[in-house]
Amino acid sequence: MKKITILVLGFILLLTSMAWAQGKPVSTEKAPKAIGPYSQAVWAGNLLFLSGQIGLVPETGKMIEGDTLAQAGQIFKNIEAILVSQELGFRDIVKVTVFGMDIKEFPEVNKLYATFFPENPPARSFVQAAALPAGAAIEIEVVAYKE
Q1: 3-class DSSP state for residue 90?
Q2: Gap between the Cα atoms of 86 and 2, Å rounded
Q3: Domains detected in the chain
Q4: pLDDT per residue of the chain (147 residues) written in tens, 0 to 9
Q5: In this structure, which of 38, 61, 70, 75 has its CB flanked by the most CB atoms within 10 Å?
Q6: 55 near 136, Cβ under 8 Å?
């Protein structure tokens, strides 16, 4: 009987972990709609994985006018909208990946970035990309943690 109980509990644990790993998609109208077959974000346990955001204006679905910094500013608004929809904020971000078309713009982007993370900034990577979706100059993805 003990072996059967252990097997049943193990099976239930396996099914639960498989459901957990599949994640729960997130969508809010306050951020741009996905421009492909992906979710704005996905929960996996206590981690929220946001898809890469570009400088699309949610109301129009078009790229914000302006340079890389204008796009980055819009991206942070889009990220914030997704986070807020899940009762999170920038303080909950644990990892940021920035994809930029020109590594020379890193210092200026870094100044703007610092305004969103004045204390205890998350881990971050900055990668120069050959091309980004919709002709974007910058794309940012984040991972947030909710206790």
Answers
A1: helix
A2: 42
A3: 23-145 (3.30.1330.40)
A4: 555 544 443 444 333 444 445 699 999 999 999 888 999 999 999 999 999 999 999 999 999 999 999 999 999 999 999 999 999 999 999 999 999 999 999 999 999 999 999 999 999 999 999 999 999 999 999 999 999
A5: 75
A6: yes
